[in-house]
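Practice problem: predict the structure.
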Amino acid sequence: MEQSTKPHQAERGQKTTLIGIAVNIGLVLVKGAAGWLGNSYALIADAMESATDIVTSIFVWVGLRTAARAPDKNHPFGHGKAEPLAAIVVSLALVGAAILIAVQSIENIRIPHKIPAPFTLVVLAAVVIIKEVLFRKVGQVGAETASSAVKADAWHHRSDAITSLTAFVGISIALIGGPGYESADDWAALLASGIIFYNAYHIFRPSLGEIMDETPPGDWEQELELIALSVSGVKGIDKFRVRKTGFEYFIDLHVLVSGDISVRVGHEIAHGVKAAILAEKPAVYDVLVHIEPD
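Answer:
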């Protein structure tokens, strides 16, 4: 039986996700209150973006827990697809948040209002730092676990940092410019909505590829051929297929061998190739090797 890497990876992903949820709950309260008291829609929009972070992070957490479940009769390849599915939910939530922020920003640009209070800049500066740190921490876990859902969660933190940064710039312009520049805060929120929409696509595209069993990035053919050729009796690779399911990879491989060997020898070579790949690539869960006569 193959040794799954899912439990440890899922546990790491779930831990960072829960930390993100806790931080976002605090930020929603702080940013929402500061935006309301400081007359800044950009900051309120930022609070809304953090609120979507909480909801989508819950989806990510559920997706990671589901993806870590062992294969069963109805899911012989495991439940890994729940992980990129959670990432797609995150991307769609970002699109919804971007549209909502854009609509409200345009409405506020048309309606005169007061210049935001200076103290909102302090709040935004703190948010940018906190969110950028979260992005780097969660992004590192996402890269190490090859988890599209965790990567999506990381980019959600980055989008929050970007919206806070644009709000900081917009409010600064409004404060420096004075009367007549009140809408700079709202233009910043509108710009942030576009950035959020772009980040949503950045999350959606690779997650959709994983759902559709797109070949994962990397030079798989060369790497698999080198590993296969290290096994005695293998002459080369005829064809291969690789797909990512959650945290792990499944490989179908056709290897070329002499047409004069016995079925037993061919069977032993196939097992040797499978064992070599599993040893070299811990993230690979299973390898199906087909023997082809040269």
